[in-house]
Amino acid sequence: MMDQQRQMPGIWAGMVAVARRDLLLVLKRPGDVLNPLFFFAMVATLFPLAVGPSVEQLEFSGPGVLWVAALLAMLLSLNSLFTSDFEDGSLEQMLVSSLPLSALAFGKAAAHWLSSGLPLVIVSPLVAMTFRMPVAVVGVLMLTLLLGTLSLSLLGSIGAALTVGLHRGTALLSLLVLPLSMPVLIFGARTVSLAAAGDTAAGGLYFLAAYTVLIMSIAPFATAAALRISNE
Amino acid sequence: MWKFLHKLASPPHFYGLAVRLIPWFAVPGFLLIAYGAYAGLFVAPPDYQQGDAFRIIYVHVPSAYLSVMAYMVMAVSAGIGLIWRMKLAHAVAAGAAPLGAWFTFLALATGSIWGRPMWGTWWEWGDPRLTSELVLLFLYFGYMALRGAIDDTAKADRASAVLALVGAVNVPIIHFSVEWWSSLHQGPTLFKEGGPAIDNAMLYPLLAMILGFTFVFGGLLLRRVRTEVLYRERRTRWVRELVFSAAGIK
User: Fold this and answer.
1) Which residue, of A42, A47, B122, B192, is most buried by count of CB atoms within 10 Å of its CB?
2) d(Cα A199, Cα A195) in Å, to the nearest integer?
3) In this predicted model, what pLDDT tens digit does every residue of A22-75 receive, in sequence order?
4) Chain B: residue nearest A176 by CA?
């Protein structure tokens, strides 16, 4: 019994532990989850105010506006992904841990998605309704957001790891991550637009799923490498 | 072979090699560009549709090609630097980035100027190549900004190398998705697969320009890397001796 407890935790257990810890931290500060959501709703509000409230306009621009707002909201919360760990030294503990750093980085990204991507997916129907989006299209929107925000969390974790500890992090992070996230935005928004026009959404969803799998298999390793470099 | 590579990687050796190699890039480059520019502007017949406006192709196509080529050079040498911890490779990546950004800018500017008489607009979001070229420019900016934000050179080298490699995986996907996105708006208008058959009198100057631009890029890259190596090795003895001998101090 003692021996078993002394054994190293498995990769999976380590990943879950990192994600659990981050989610617990988020629970203590619910503002971290709520602020990006308010930001998302706010950006979506800006467009009808700026462009005008005509119904055709809203129906036409809805998918794009919602996707841009979601992308920016994800970016907003990425900045702090590794900051507090870097400041209090827990990042160094992860670096010297015997578990693969890529697995821990994946746990961090997963926690980020659960605390900022998933809430966006859940709130998006509310905002979508104000853009007169039909229920079937809202389903497609939620699916694209589900896949898209997951890949954004993973992609963003690379950028966050590269910029951790830098003073001019925020603007730099956007400059690094936004060009890379172009495919997600394009396929996310266009798939919803296609669905709204009565076309089939399957192709775009397959692409998003494939892209998410690709990023899922690359990003943890790139993030781990970046964390090692940032903490030299 | 390994001995040669090992020697190449040593900064003083590379410095000497670069000094000797630069003319071999610069002279053919300028000759080819001089021929290409003359033949392209005066000898090649005007296009039956576009008239003389098509002649900007002689700057546009080589720049667009080099904008992607420079990214490949940057990503490959960043990868070599990251994997084999070769400092010189990092210096090459650092030197290639601003050059690539310039060629990307040149491709965008000439594309925009070309678009004015052809499409009647300076900027056409519907053209996938223009848009993905713009994203490429942002990728270069991100790379250079990350490099600039980190003070420690070795750290900046390795961090930006990770970014360059992640970007290299993404570049084809970005290009493909931008193409897919715009194909919903309109079919490709100007640039078709295979393209319209091009007359030899038009083709040869273009090939000369592409080759000439590549030579000039190689020469400029060597120059930049040479400067970069000098700066990075500024505290070593060989640089001090070099500077002293250049200044005539014994």
Assistant:
1) A47
2) 5
3) 899 888 888 888 888 999 999 988 888 888 878 788 888 888 899 999 999 998
4) B142
